[in-house]
Amino acid sequence: MTKNTISGIFLLITLNVAISGCKNGKDTKQVIGKEAKNHPPQIKHQTILINTIKLNQSIDKILQAFDLTKNDNSNSEYNLNLAYEEFSFPLSGNFKYNELNLGKLNSLVVYYLKDSNSAFSYELELENNPNQELLIKELNKSLGKPAFYKKLENTKEHPIFLNENGEQETQHIIEESLKWNDSQNKSALFVIHKKNLTGNTNKLSLIVVYSESKMFDEWMKFRSLDMTFIK
Predict the structure, then answer these.
(1) How far apart are alpha carbons 79 and 171 in whole angstroms?
(2) DSSP assignment letter at 58
């Protein structure tokens, strides 16, 4: 066997090892990704008191109170917005508003500015949850009478909503919009409560925004709150 032949064989072996290493590296990354999805972040704190979330402070300080860090974010998608980031709470814990146990949440998200790390809004969503009316009562109890209240009712005979196809909605739907001003924490709380009596479904969204944030007006438009809560 000539020297050139031996060199050629050695080169082929080296290339095969390198290619195998690349493939194995790719496979390892895929496995790690699957394991991360199968083991989502867990809440370490026994109870999350949502009403204790104070805006206009560092997101790290907010999370620290619940034994969490940014690494516990349950939303793994990259946010392309240049102004803000979002932290989605893991939904494995026990969530309360004051003394009201909220049960299962759809989502609890805190939004904070990228440049200052300061939180300017948090949003809570409940869907087909029996505690929705109780949450509204709890807000009335702690903040008093709403500064804004509007009720809309859609029926087959008097449709005011459009369905997802852009046609007149025929189902019996009641939508309530409420706003409270929390002067102590300089925040505005918006609730949109939608009950579909025909389909026996319901959804409540609570949006809390720091009133003096530079994002306030933008968030009102972004969440279409300016169209609902008209002064």
Answers:
(1) 36
(2) B
Compute the distance between CA of residue 85 and CA of residue 90 in angstroms, rounded to an integer. Answer: 16
Give me the residues paired with residue 206 across strands: 124, 191
Q: How do residues 211-225 score in pLDDT, each as one tens digit?
A: 999 999 999 999 999
Amino acid at 169: E
pTM of the complete model beyond 0.90 = no
DSSP letters spanning 117-157: -BEEEEEEEEES-TTHHHHHHHHHHHH-S-SEEEEEEE-SS
Residues 178, 221, 223, 77, CA torsion sign:
negative
Model confidence over 176-210: pLDDT tens digits?
Answer: 999 999 999 999 999 999 999 999 999 999 999 99
| Domain residue limits, the chain | 1-39, 47-228
- Which of 108, 117, 99 lies closest to 55 in space, CA to CA? 117
DSSP 52: G
Among 30-34, 81-85, 128-132, 186-190, whose mean pLDDT is lowest?
30-34
- Torsions phi, psi of 145, nearest 5? -65, 140
60 CB-near residues (< 8 Å, 6+ apart): 69, 70, 117
pLDDT digits (tens, 9 = 90+) for 50-97: 999 999 999 999 999 999 999 999 987 777 778 999 999 999 889 999
